[in-house]
Design brief:
9 helices; disordered N terminus; 60s Ribosomal Protein L30, Chain: A; 4 strands; 2 domains; 309 residues; rod-shaped; alpha+beta
Amino acid sequence: MTLAQPSRTSSRFKFGPALAVLLALALSACTGSGVFEDLDQAQPSGSPFSQALFKDYSALARSFGAVGATSGSSFDSESSMSLSGADNDVADLATSFAQKALDAAKGSDVLPEPAADGDTDAEAARIRLLKSLEDGRDKFPADAARAQAEYDCWVMNARVDSQKSAAEQCRRSFDGAVTQLERDLNPVPVAPAPVQAGPSANYQVYFDFNSWNLTAENLTVLQQAIATARAGGQSHITIVGHTDTSGSAAYNQRLSEKRANVVVEALVDMGARREAIQASGVGESDLAVQTGDGVKEPKNRRSVINLVP
């Protein structure tokens, strides 16, 4: 007979009637009922890890027959291997799992089985398991117990010739269980959600006639712009200098550039990154208030600060 294949999606054993009878007969012929009677009467105590081990080892022991199969087990025989006949080794295997369950029920330390001599894969797996159990048995007792039970299912079945297929299935289950435990202990950090940049925002400062000096009022406006950029996550600033139509176009172009650059220096002094700022001057070509040539219009003598995501 073979060991039921563990499954994470079902909670009860699903033997067909004929198979259940065959299993029960095989078990009664091969094993004494004493250890299973003790299993039925056991009241698990100890840590959550010990109690979880009791549950998983009990399910492994019971999977050799229909004796007292309990619902709620983490193991399931829906995908069990075909029976290969009862023998003393299989009976001993069932009893060994039952004894491990009883030891766990008492709160005793139950260690994973040692690997067979020369079985480097099992030895490496045991080292990996023990490392995960150091913290896992306390922090994630259910997953830790599952990983240990799957490992023992693999190693112990591998000792019985008729159970090689079961051992291989348990090995694959162990790989999944120990990987899950490792993920529990070392979760992949979740990157913080990116700051959602606010919408573009415009600020304007105005200049006296033929001047590019910033007033106290201008500085207050620029401080508000910096505060808005920090709070809203805007990472770029564009600055455009303007003039009115008084004076020549060439002179006004140079004046508008000075008005843009003086704002750049003020913002940098306030903590803005120079490389995040783009400045330009457009002279008298983009008027806020449309006027004829040679008109001194205060609203046209300005720099526009635009905060963009």
